Structure formats: structure tokens, C-alpha cells
Amino acid sequence: MNIKAAMAEAAEAVEHVMDRLLPIPEGPEARVIEAMRYSSLGGGKRFRAFLVLESAKLFAVSSQCALRVAAAVEFLHAYSLIHDDLPAMDDSDLRRGRPSCHKQFDEATAVLAGDGLLTYAFEVLAHENTHADPKVRADLVLALAKASGTQGMVGGQMIDLLAETTPDMDAAQITRLQRMKTAALICFSCEAGAILGKAGPAARHALQFYGQEMGLAFQIGDDLLDVEGDSAETGKPTGLDQAAGKATLVAVQGAESARAHADMLVEQAGSHLDFFDGKATLLKEVARFVINRRS
Amino acid sequence: MNIKAAMAEAAEAVEHVMDRLLPIPEGPEARVIEAMRYSSLGGGKRFRAFLVLESAKLFAVSSQCALRVAAAVEFLHAYSLIHDDLPAMDDSDLRRGRPSCHKQFDEATAVLAGDGLLTYAFEVLAHENTHADPKVRADLVLALAKASGTQGMVGGQMIDLLAETTPDMDAAQITRLQRMKTAALICFSCEAGAILGKAGPAARHALQFYGQEMGLAFQIGDDLLDVEGDSAETGKPTGLDQAAGKATLVAVQGAESARAHADMLVEQAGSHLDFFDGKATLLKEVARFVINRRS
């Protein structure tokens, strides 16, 4: 199966599970549930979900368990997009070709929908249906919380916001920011398979290293799309980072050099998968895909 | 020991643990950590922490474990206050007698600080230092997530916001709102001791019922303070709920009837503690305290 078909299949499967997991909008609190569903369902490449599912396959984890973890990661990702889009943050009106959550609903509902999705990600992971072994569930919660907190996504978004007013970050500082803001959750998605499969430290580290390098390459791919992409294909306005003076490697190194950097990261990422003796073909392919995508 | 001294002692102990658990502000992301520390340390009655510690004592749980759970609950409570105070939500400039988080920092930092504290609450619970048994850690995460999500705090805040523009809620609807918005986290705080102590279902249910009734009484106490309190003592402006047309039992039933309602709830709450044969003296006392406090 080629990588695009495999990703589409994974996206459909996780979308179905997310739909089933999310509460039904009813009662006077229905509005926040509608907003959670609006922003997490019906779109997205489900790239992080794909990584969870593929890494889980390396350890023969049941797809039911892996899909719940994949759904939790996508809930968490959706929360981060809702809050990042808020007027006080990146002030983005469009997301996946539709009005962003605070445009479709309102700011208060968007804050709450993000809070609800973040909270629900942990609820799903901690539930016994995610894995029979509570040690696995607690480890998943711990690893996801670390990837999402001040050492990860939240800290990275803080640096990213501050960078707009102090625009003299060098490549090393930008790399650290992107490791936190983007790569940490991608890294967790890869590591999740090893946690679910109770893999030894060597396998878990191999996936962590793969995820870190590939996560950085993914972010460079994203920044290249902002410069070179077509907003009709990406579903969001392009040229925004440049206009906002965002700290990206593309801005600092130029597009050509950033692309070469991403190529090298993909190469390095792939090398960590050699640990799995050719079993991780799709993960190797997806690393190349992230820097050559068009949306 | 009287209830005030016991609460002060618990507050000091949990404050110390929270201070030690929170990251040190350093690196370019320091600002969000400063905001998390600003809004979670240095104040508050630590009422929820007290409930965790007292319920844990019923099952001879080590105070080290109980204090970590108490800290996690206070981190989560602090997140909810930061987000509730945001301009798009309750738009409150003052909290615990100091500028609210978005006034002291800015809106973006306040959104992120709340996100960081919510995430960190789950990280602390899932960490092996919280309890040697991973089943206990996963159960704590699950119960806290349920209390904080759309069935609990997030759903309650949604209803509360909508109530401002549809001001015809009856007592039953307001009670449901307050069960979700306030009582759910208070209920978790009481239940936490039973989870930590691996108590049987009867003990756990007794604490849940106690927490639900007492949590409602607590909210009525809060609403009475808004009407009758002195902002110099409460550390926040009073009369705001009335001015905003907030849905409270005090507004619907009048202060006197609401106070009688709260008395009845405290009575009911206390009766659930009879299960513990006089061992839960301070929990019984604190239920009376919540409706007679001045801040």
C-alpha cells in the first residue's frame, strides 16, 4: 500500500473512533461539546494518529488500544490548534478551510472547547479500555503530559509568541522552540506504540529519536508550505508566518537551505528505524512524505 | 485542633509541595512558568487540598502521596480560575486580592499558563512518586479528568456563561450547573483519599456523596459571600454576580432561603460520614465551615 492510501485508511479509522468517543451534544452544556466536535472531527491528515498506529504495529498491539491512543493524541492536537488560533494568540480566522473555533462559536466557547479536549485526551488514556495494564495507562498519561506541558507544546508556544516581538532568534534557538512546540507531540505519537507494546528501552529510544528528528522535519515542511504553498490546498492562509515575522528556519536559513536541513533530518530519522529490521517501512516513508507534502 | 488551624497547617504543607513540584522559571519559556507560579502559589485557602489530605487520613495513606494529589488538585483549580477570569469569560481583573493572571501578564500567557497547569496536574498524578500502584495513578487521572471535563467543570462553566444571556434558570437547573462547575472537583478531592487508600466501594461512595452535598453547600456559601461579603476580606470584588445577573440559588431563592438550603446540605453531607464511625471529625466540621466563612 502506498503511503497516501495508508494514511487515508488510518485517518478514516481514527475519525470513526473519535466520533464514537466524543460525547453527544445534549443538555444546556451542548454548545461546548458541539465546539469540541467541530474542531476535532471532519478533517485533518491525522498524521499523529498514523504514527501511533504504525508504531503500535511494530509490537503487535491490538488496533482497538492503538486507535484509542491515536484518538487521544488527535484530541490533544485539536485543543492546541483551537487555543493557538485565539485572537490573543495567533489570531487565525481559518483552520482546515473552515472558520476557526472562536469564529464559528465565540472566544469563551473556544477556550472551553480546548480545555475540554485536553482534559478528555487524558480521560481516554486513563480508561481501562485503552489497555488492560494500568502501568501502561499511567505511562501514556505521563508521557503525553510531558510532551504537552511547559517542557513541550505549552513552553514552545510561549517562546513562539515571544519571538514575534524579539525577532533575533538563531537556528539553534528556533530548533529548540520547534522541538518543544511541534516535535514533542509527534515524538510521543511514535513512542506510544512502544509504551502500548511494553517494549524495552532500546526500541522505545529508537522511536523517540525517530520522532524527534522527523518532528523537526515536519515543522520545516510546514514552514515551507507557508512560503511556497497554496492556501486552497493547505486550507489555511499562507504567507502568515513571514508577515508576522515568525521565527522559522526557512526565514533564517532561506528555503533552499531549510529544505536541505529537512532532508538530512529525514535521513537521520530513518536510520533510527534500522533497529526494527525493515519492519518499519511505512514510518520510513512517512518521514520523506512530511517534507514533500502539499497540504 | 480547631478547623481553622488544621486548614492553615494543610495549606502551608501543600503550598510547599506545589512550590517544589512546579518548574523553575528559566529559558525563553520562563514567562509561562512565572505565570503558572504566580497564579497557583502564594494564596488561597487550599480548601480542596485540605479535603484530599483529610480523606486520605481515613485510610492511613502516606502524607507524601496525599500531598502530591492535593497539589495536583490545586494546580487544576488554579487553571480554572485563570481561564474563568479571562476577558472572554468572566472578565475579572482581581483574584485573591491581586491582579488576575491576564492582567499581571497578558491574555496569551494566561491561556497558556492555564493549559500548563491543567496538563501538569495530570503529569503529577501519573508520576510514580504519587503512588507505587499504577492502578491507583490511572484511577486518579480518570476520576480527575471526569470531574474537570464536559460532565464536570468545563460543562458547568459553559452553562454558567450561557446563563448570563438566558436568565431564567430554575433552582433545579442551577443546582445541576453548580454540581458540574464546583461540586465535581470538590467531590473528587474527597474521593481521592479513597482511591489512594484502595478503599472498597462503600467507603468511596460515602466520600463521593459527602463531597457532592458539601460542594453544593460550598457554592452557596460563595454566592452568599458575593452578596453579603466584604471585598477586603474576600480578596475579590463583591456584588459582581448580582450585577452580571448570574444564575445562583441566592438570586433565585433569596439569601435566607439559600442559607437554609445550605444548612440542610451540610447536614446531609455530614450524615454520609457516619460510615467512618467518628473518624472523620474534621471533614464534618469543614462542611459547617464552608457556609459560615467570611472569605
Structural class of chain A: mainly alpha
Strand content of chain A: under 5%
- N/C terminus separation of chain A: 21 Å
Using the coordinates shown, work out and report the CATH topology of chain A: Farnesyl Diphosphate Synthase
The number of helical segments of chain A is 15
CATH class type of chain A: Mainly Alpha
CATH superfamily of chain A: Farnesyl Diphosphate Synthase
State the CATH architecture of chain A.
Answer: Orthogonal Bundle
Largest sheet of chain A: 2 strands, antiparallel
Portion in helices of chain A = over 70%
Average pLDDT metric of chain A: 93
Quantity of strands of chain A, as a count: 2
Say what oligomer this is. Answer: homodimer
Strand order of the largest sheet of chain A: 1-2
Unreliable stretches of chain A, pLDDT < 50, 5 or more residues?
Answer: none
Give a written overview of the molecule.
Two copies of one chain form a homodimer. Chain A has 295 residues and is mainly α. In chain A, α3 runs antiparallel to α4, α9 packs across α10 and α14 runs antiparallel to α15. Chain A contains 15 helices and two strands. Chain A has a single domain, classed as Farnesyl Diphosphate Synthase. At the A-B interface, α2, α6, α7, α8 and α9 of A face α2, α6, α7, α8 and α9 of B.
